[in-house]
Design the sequence.
């Protein structure tokens, strides 16, 4: 796979498009290659699902009373001591 060459200004102006692309890009400055940008494809649906799940856990934690939080902290401390 050959990297296309783009100037640094063009790269900066079109960064969002290069991130969404599959092709690597050779970034040049005054005609000299100064670096390569290789986009990494991620599963955005999985990231969104993980973020949603973390938000739901946070919402549940925020609903706890002070007594429940203290109880959890005490349980944690006991489990930690047991592992030492």
Sequence:
């Amino acid at each position: 796979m050959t990297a296309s060459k783009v100037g640094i200004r063009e790269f900066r102006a079109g960064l969002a498009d290069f991130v969404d692309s599959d092709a690597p890009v050779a970034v040049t400055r005054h005609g000299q290659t100064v670096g390569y940008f290789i986009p990494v494809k991620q599963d955005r649906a999985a990231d969104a699902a993980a973020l949603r799940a973390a938000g739901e856990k946070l919402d549940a934690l925020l609903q706890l009373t002070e007594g429940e939080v203290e109880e959890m902290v005490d349980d944690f401390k006991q489990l930690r001591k047991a592992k030492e």
Notes: The chain has a mean pLDDT of 90. Residues 28 and 65 are 57 Å apart (CA to CA). The longest helix spans residues 44-62.
